[in-house]
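For the sake of transparency, this paper describes our internal protein records without simplification. Because each token names a local backbone shape, the row as a whole describes the fold. One such record is reproduced below, unchanged from the form in which we store it.
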Amino acid sequence: MERSNKKEELKEEKIENKNVKVYLLVIQFFLSIITLGFVIAFMFNDGLMAYLQISLALTLIVIGINNIVVYKRKVLPVVYFLMGAGLVMLAIITILGV
């Protein structure tokens, strides 16, 4: 009995993990589309630089999370997190006009 309960718990855990992975990949997809839209819009309007930087930063951070959760990578997510944090700082500087 105990063994079958553990198997059922493991199955439920795998299903939950799979759902989380799918949601993260969907979020990355939509953020990538939004970022692409900001890139195209930025070509015509220079005032969208801060929005583009924030969108790209969020996309990079979600890519880093996906690299850890979905692809089980160790080193590359650090690069994505650092780039995302740098872009957030640049966006703040752009918004403040420093």
Summary: The chain has one domain: 2-96.
